[in-house]
Amino acid sequence: MADHQPALVEDALRTLGASHADLREANRRWQAWxxxxxxxxxxxxxxxxxxxxxxxxxxxxxxxxxxxxRWPVPLWPSLRFEVLCAxxxxxxxxxxxxxxxxxxxxxxxxxxxxxxxxxxxxxVARAFAPAEPMExxxxxxxxxxxxxxxxxxxxxxxxxWGLLQYVD
Length: 168
Hints:
The chain is α+β, with helices and mostly antiparallel strands. It is about 25% helix and about 30% strand.
């Protein structure tokens, strides 16, 4: 997220009482652990790093059944970190931030309402339907194409870990 919103990352570090050195070390450990040959895989990786999830549920979309695991996020109490994984074996398919069940999201009516770190992929997709999912430039990044309701222009919303970073 620091690639897109360095000022917001600075604020988050202050809020969490962390330094840039803490941030770099946490990222180094996560990358080494997650990508090392002997590190835990799939769902087990998240359970070891984050403890037991706050919620776990089975979902079905068409003929695909999967599990959704959610953890609270101290920096954003109204969001949850969600991991979608296979019903057996725990292979993970997706990981991102979503709005916590029952938490109110922002009112999104115009592109002016799309503020960095204020909304999730799902919220923007619903508010500006029909939005078109687009490939991101990294595994943790997503893009949504949509039409600006005010001027009819094509726009692209960019997300990191499911949280809005900016709109072109």
